[in-house]
Specification:
Blueprint lengths: L2 H23 L9 E5 L10 E8 H6 L6 E10 L6 E2 L6 E6 L2 E5 L3 H4 L1 H5 L3 H7 L4 E2 L3 E10 L7 E7 L7 E5 L16
Antiparallel strand pairs: 1-2, 1-10, 2-3, 3-8, 4-7, 5-6, 5-9, 9-10
């Protein structure tokens, strides 16, 4: 191997390192798809053993829709220490999506929103999208909500998840940014 090849490989390795560092510093990770996590779980807040979160990956969210008509909102629900399972109700539970200063009602029931689209799905996918009747203590599940694209006036600002069996709605706000991401642009970096 010649000296020129060694130098070229060394320069290439340094360049890859610089690019990877810049991507990670931008918050995008290896896929460079920045995300926002909305959650009701905050340090020091009292809880009733139920937490929820929505992770929006900006690039995937912007480019994907269900049937060209709906945005899919995956809501991760965590049930902690409880005496009984968490009862869910397809008829009475709801997710409100805050967007553009408005609150838009999402649906947990695609079959009621768009029967032809629902009927075109595989049985396995229908099973995954079906809203459960309950969640056991010490468990977690993802439930899926559908928001009509035409009703979303702008970027997502937050969520309000009402579970009829809970005393109050779960308000999902953006998670606090990591300390490094909060540095001012002119801050010295060490």
């Amino acid at each position: 191997m010649g000296l020129g090849t060694i130098i070229a490989r060394g320069v290439a390795a340094v360049w890859v390192g610089i690019c990877a560092s810049a991507t990670l510093a931008a918050g995008g990770g290896a896929l460079n798809d920045p995300q926002e996590i909305y959650t009701n779980e905050r340090a020091g807040m009292p809880g009733d053993g139920v937490g929820a979160s929505v992770t929006i990956q900006f690039v995937a969210y912007a480019l994907n829709s269900v049937g060209g008509k709906y945005k899919l909102i995956p809501v991760r629900v965590r049930v902690g220490e409880r005496q009984a399972p968490l009862a869910l109700s397809i008829e009475q539970d709801r997710l409100l999506v805050a967007s553009g200063g408005k609150k838009i009602v999402a649906s947990f029931q695609l079959s009621a929103l768009d029967r032809p689209l629902w009927d075109s799905l595989s049985p396995d996918l229908k099973k995954r999208l079906t809203y459960p009747e309950q969640l056991s203590p010490n468990s977690a599940a993802v439930v899926y909500a559908f928001v009509p694209l035409a009703d979303l006036p702008g970027p997502i600002e937050g969520f309000e998840y009402t579970i009829k069996s809970l005393p109050a709605p779960l308000v999902l706000a953006p998670e606090a940014k990591k300390a490094a991401a909060m540095l001012p642009a002119d801050a010295p970096q060490g």
